[in-house]
């Protein structure tokens, strides 16, 4: 998972927000290219308000400044699957207490080849949006009292179908069917054992992959191709 999201404002993304219980005219942060450390919209739940659309920095660990917060020096836009279950890791308590969902149209991956070429691919849901599993936390500034939320995407080992395009990891793509999503967003579920099956690489949706020139311009340089969901 290489630090870029496609959050297009289209019917597929809006349809997922409505499926999550939000109004048809919901306002969320959207862009064809959202980079790590930028603000992003996430869905989280708490016991007082239920499901909430939250603006957060896509970087879990923040450093305090004189008047606010900034992304910390340690890279934390991703939280590895083998860290979130380890007591003492930065993502352990958020995984137990404040899981979230990124509603996206797709994500980007980068792969450095043996001949030193760098290949970039964008992946989008095939006639669908995607739900990426993540964790979030809040910060309170001691001087200003400002509350700032931060978040990260949980990453898994690469699925065999995606490994040629990023050999290190893939984002956790949550299934949109069954009771998994309800459990993921349940703020009272602090026993993580029922959620551990989700930390196995899986493709819950059909994807379309597009070779691009570079992340910032995302100009296609090859024909799109399909990557089917797991049976």
From TrEMBL:
What InterPro entries does the annotation carry? Answer: SRAP, SRAP-like
Q: In the Enzyme Commission scheme, what number(s) does this protein have?
A: 3.4.-.-
Specify the domain of life of the species encoding this protein. Bacteria
Keywords, comma-separated and alphabetical: Covalent protein-DNA linkage, DNA damage, DNA-binding, Hydrolase, Lyase, Protease
Q: Which family does it belong to?
A: Belongs to the SOS response-associated peptidase family.
**Name of the molecule in the record:** Abasic site processing protein
The lineage is: Bacteria, Pseudomonadati, Pseudomonadota, Gammaproteobacteria, Alteromonadales
